[in-house]
User: Fold this.
Amino acid sequence: MIRSLSCTRSAVFTLLLAVAGLRNSSAQRPTPFTPDPSIRVDHDVMVPMRDGVTLGTDIYYPTGQGPWPVLLSRTAYDKTHTAREAEFFVKAGYVVVTQDSRGLYASHGDWRPYIDEGPDGFDTQQWIGHQKWSNGKIGMFGTSYPAYTQVAPAPYRSPFVKVLVPVSAQSSNFGSVWGTDGMLALALTMSWAPQQEAIHEKKQMHPVNWMQVMNHLPLKSSQDAGGVTSQFALDAITHQNYDSFWKAQSIAEHSNDFDTPALHVSGWYDLLLHETFVNYINLKKSSRTERSRNFQHLLIGPWGHGVRPVRLYGDVDFGALDLDFRETELRWYDYFLKGKDNGLATEAPVRIFVMGDNVWRDEKEWPLARTQPTRYFLHSAGFANTRAGNGTLDTTAPQTEAPDHYRYDPLNPVPTYGGHANGGGPRGVMAEGPLDQSVNEARLDVLNYTSAKLGSDLEVTGAPEATLSFSTDVPDTDFFVTLSDVYPNGKSIIITEGSLRTRFRDSLEHPSLLEHGKTYTVKIPLWETSNVFKKDHQIRLHITSSNFPRFNRNLNSGKDRAGETEVDARVATQTIYHDQLHNSSLTLPVIPR
Assistant:
């Protein structure tokens, strides 16, 4: 019999989405921008690529006599929207070049997301380097897709490019953005890809009820409602393993060819947080020269997608952040493109915002050398379900304990509420950031393990890891683990999270299904964080099997996701073991105070 959401469940889900819409709508919106008429701009200069396709390019010039250093931003989001940043940098003495990605807006050619950004970026850099207004030194800027367009050409090593400042750039589209190691980033895929395709095809999408799109099965026809079909979205749905489709877009495959100083920037609640750390760590280790390795720096703040240094974010007051990011960028450009001795060479490579203490702190490395991995074990009397259950968390290993059980119904998923969901879908579909998890933690399909109140402050800085011993009665399923900071008033603020699609527990390239009833032990990395759990607060780990619509629901069938329908959906009975033989636990990177 096919199950469906009841009216009551639908009402609760709609309420959560309404709250998400309110929270997203309160995010900072750009104020109207009036261009400075004194700045000379050449609009829609058509720059030729190696295959003869020309890309629409705007060039902003400073006053005085050139040649000048150049700042370049290549974007899939309309180059004219970069005018505000362009004018700031022009007034600081830089030529600014902004360019539409191939196949979008003023640029010609076919739009193939990610694929052409490496060679097109390199060809543009080479073209700039030979212009009479260029002094042969180029830096790059941009956030999200325009951050990817910075790192994608880097392995080509244009001699003109001296510095990058990628804000929210990925290392692999398989590891983040379009999914997390085999889980499809549903909300983003179903909204971003067809809307970008509509721009390329110069079409208007039909009005769309996004929640109907998210709920639609099979996934391969989810785009039909909008009237525009993105081949990229179809490919993202179909290629569920880490194969040649994903490898062609991966920076990680080419980190040994990188040789450019870079400031890597992200936020603790950015959907590209982990990928930013991957880029930083890989390039710090593998860049071709010592100079490039030394000038891989990292900046992480208490925000989501893109730099948004606001005091109030989600359900948390982070205090005065005291950060002028444009000035931070400018110091990097001035050092590498103008040769200014502004102290950059002596700065620590890592700068992080420590939540809880709400302070900025410089570090010499990541992960921190003084980390003390501390293991907290899961305990219960057999009913850790809901935050009112008897699940606990402490540093004593379990002996004889009953396991915990819950039922995961893919047609009644746990809704996305907070965490790294930002930038991941249409407005109003998901809430983001440090939000109170109490509503989700009240569900029977969410296990909660909570520590005693802390007797003193406890700093957690690094990447936590969960170890789960489990069994199930389905061939494939998901686990989501969330670390929260429980305040004395009961508020449970999400700090970080991790996930696993069990078919990928051993390999991203060669998945394997589960055996009915067999016990497995898996490691689930949580994304990086820095938070001080204050005295009298509690640490909570909650475990469930869905995070929808950020990720597609695992229907538990073991089939390929593209063609599954409601008929394939199976309810899974999940069992989490914590006893002398199965030490399910949470390992925290504790920093001595």
Residues 7-25 form the longest helix (19 residues). Confidence is low (pLDDT under 50) at residues 1-29. DSSP finds twelve helices and 27 strands in the chain.
